[in-house]
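Notes from hallway chat w/ T.B., transcribed later so I don't forget. T.B. wanted the structure written out for a chain they're using in a teaching module, and asked if we could keep both sequence and structure tokens in one place. Agreed to drop them here.
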Amino acid sequence: MSVQTVIDQQVKGHSVVLYMKGSPDFPQCGFSANAVRLLRQCGVQDFFSVDVLQDPDIRQGIKTYSNWPTIPQLYVKGEFIGGSDIMNELFQNGELKKLLGV
């Protein structure tokens, strides 16, 4: 199975997916920690996360999949939302909570 197929199944198989460095309990960069914090502040405690540091193919593949160069990357209901900066902006204007359906 190709990396793109694996990513597609992950993105479409879960309502909230975060590709990040580290895990939600132990983020390995400040941007990933911020993304987790924003999701939790919106009331999302349980979400599917993928540690891109564990698999270099996924780390590169997700950038190709989304055509977005940085990690973390948030997907909601199969749709690419953006990275940490976009999540901040959406959180500030109340849109992130709406997108997450909480």
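Follow-up for T.B.: Strands lie at 16-20, 48-51, 73-76, 79-82. Might be a good example for the class.
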